[in-house]
Amino acid sequence: MIRNKISNIILWILSISFLLITVILLSTTWAAIFFIIPAVLLNPYVNKLLWDKFNFHNKAWIKIISAILPFIFYGIAVPTTSTTPNPNLVSSLPSSAVISSSETSLPSVIPSSSFIPSSSSQAVISSSTAQTIPAVPAVGAKLKVHFIDVGQGDSEFLELPNGQTMLIDAGEAEYGSGIVSYIKGLGHTKIDYLIASHPHADHIGGMATVVNGLNIGKIYMPKKSTTTKTFEGLLTAIKNKGLQVNTAKAGQNLLKAGNLNIDIIAPVNITGDDLNQYSAVIKVTYGANRFLFMGDAGSTSEAQISADVSADVLKVGHHGSNTSTSQTFLNKVRPKYAVIEVGKGNSYGHPTAATLTKLQNIGAAIYRTDNDGTIIFTSDAKTITINKKSATIKQQAPPTASSKSSAASFKAAASKPSTNNNQGITVYIADTGTKYHLSTCRTLKKSKHAISLAEAKAKGYTACGICHPPE
Ligand SMILES: [Zn+2]
Ligand SMILES: [Zn+2]
Known about the structure:
Layout (H helix, E strand, L loop, with lengths): L1 H24 L10 H6 L2 H11 L5 H24 L1 H8 L2 H15 L8 H15 L10 E5 L8 E4 L5 E4 L7 H10 L4 E6 L5 H4 L2 H7 L1 E7 L7 H12 L4 E3 L4 E6 L2 E7 L14 E6 L2 E5 L5 H6 L8 E3 L11 H7 L3 E4 L12 H9 L3 E4 H4 L2 E5 L4 E4 L18 H8 L5 E2 L3 E6 L5 E3 L11 E4 H6 L3 E2 L8
Parallel strand pairs: 3-4, 4-5, 5-6, 10-11, 11-12, 12-13, 18-20
Antiparallel strand pairs: 1-2, 1-14, 2-3, 7-8, 8-9, 9-10, 14-15, 16-17, 17-18, 17-19
The structure holds zinc ion (ZN) (2 copies).
């Protein structure tokens, strides 16, 4: 008798428990309805009714199975009803909204029940947060901007104070592997933000090698294509790695994390065929310090920019040529430091005396990669310090394999067409034809003679359309 009473009490408790489970879990999935079965079949009152009215004895094994089956149904149903919609939910939202969506809506969809394989739902949250929610810089964290010496071309690598990285441009093709080893030498294997300012070879030439050699986060390019092999090679490398290109245009925010902010402020509304004007212009603000990266943007683009361009450090547009850095624009920027990425003895006459004078008159200290090698600006959000340790690479002392600084070994790693300071750039001609070439040009298989660029031009040779030597 007592044993019966005890078992009745236990059955009542179990029955009520299953009823509560049904009510609680029904808000997460319809599959919880099956928990009502043991709630009914275990109930002593229901069993007494069954016996009295239908002469039915509800056997123990029926009760046990009725209590086990709902767990199985629920276990099958939950992964399909709760985790499947979540990746869609996360990926369809704008990146800034992802953090709030993972924090607010996921827990309401997924109950804190142990039936759910937690690894899959957590993977959804962490993968989306890792990609879209950059950390906020710690107090005193440093922003380092490396103006990498890539001869006549542009490449700036940013070690952001929140631990992320950014690369703007990658010089000519022969510098790609040198840039990859330079970045790896700093201890990085990933570029979170890769910017191809515009599709000229002195900016994107080395970028396919960069894409293949490092992990890449987001890629930005202006919406302007060209038909060169270099550009098509880059697009192929991006496609082969399963990456996508985002359009770089004014008004885009790349990163906002505490006092660190990165915006694209140009191109605004460029038309026509001048690729330089389409350059993505990037403004990086870290506390009180501001950096402005112009690519090869010219005065047409400068005039269109409505964003605040004031900056401490200006990466001067188009290697210091006359087509950029208009006085009107420079008056708005008022840089303390101007950096010109330019090759020794380049045939373009970059930078021009006029641009240098304008920069001096506005009070900017001028740094040039042809004179200073790779230049590193460090900001702690308040003050900027400049490191020119790589200034060992002087025009008078070409880099050798025995040079010790990192920039020197970087330069040595990059195989550059040999240059001679007195005679300018060396190019190559064949026994036949009217074109001059780079040393590496595939058309030079049969014959190859070194000649100075000036001499080649004087003799009426013109630049090869395949290897694109300096003009
Ligand atoms: Zn350029
Ligand atoms: Zn250009």
